[in-house]
Specification:
By secondary structure, this protein is mostly helical. The chain is built from six helices and two strands.
């Protein structure tokens, strides 16, 4: 539909997605010869593989800070925000995962 000259809004309406979703799909998967579905699928798989291989590990000084704040009964959200102010970045989700993995190994 894109090659035929249809706009993103029309494409989105036809396939059942919002126009911004279509725009993102077209822009992030466009190659030298335009948008191609096989190429888009290959790029999506590569992004997914990369995403799965990134470990969410808390180590070093960040780990020490997280553990100390957990002992003070701070929530993962509070820990994440306070540490960001100190230029030590860890997401609240990583802290939740850390606590969960610790519970699994200790119980």
């Amino acid at each position: 539909m894109n090659k035929a000259g249809f706009g993103q809004a029309a494409i989105g309406e036809f396939i059942g997605f919002w126009q911004p979703t279509v725009s993102k799909e077209l822009s992030r998967n466009k190659g030298k010869k335009g948008y191609r579905s096989k190429q888009a699928q290959d790029l999506a798989r590569a992004r997914q593989k990369l995403k799965k291989t990134r470990p969410k590990v808390i180590t070093g000084e960040v780990r020490e800070q997280v553990e100390a704040r957990l002992l003070l009964k701070h929530s993962p959200d509070q820990i994440s925000e306070k540490m960001a102010l100190q230029k030590m970045f860890v997401s609240h989700e990583s802290i939740y995962q850390y606590v969960l993995s610790d519970r699994k190994t200790n119980s």
